[in-house]
Design the sequence.
């Protein structure tokens, strides 16, 4: 599992883009690097091994798996997600 700091970075990226008035697609583009970092945190050490040696397609497949795990974690931990998103909005607006 990724650190709470990497999850907070993801939520701050989304909140900052939203505060700027960006459309949903633009918010997703701005937050993509933070999403990828958070998703990689949900991969096992074996799944992350030799990342740079993987093809682009294999990396994308693993990131999809990490994103699925992130979404399941968010569904299973709504209180933590809510807290992190509130913190992210306060950081984005400051």
Sequence:
């Amino acid at each position: 599992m990724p650190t709470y700091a990497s999850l907070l970075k993801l939520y701050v990226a989304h909140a900052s883009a939203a505060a700027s008035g960006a459309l949903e697609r633009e918010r997703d583009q701005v937050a993509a690097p933070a999403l990828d970092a958070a998703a990689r945190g949900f991969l096992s050490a074996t799944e992350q091994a030799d990342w740079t040696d993987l093809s682009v397609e294999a990396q994308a497949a693993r990131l999809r798996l990490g994103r699925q795990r992130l979404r399941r974690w968010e569904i299973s931990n709504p209180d933590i997600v809510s807290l992190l998103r509130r913190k992210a909005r306060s950081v984005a607006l400051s």
Notes: Residues 35 and 66 are 10 Å apart (CA to CA). The two ends are 28 Å apart (CA to CA).
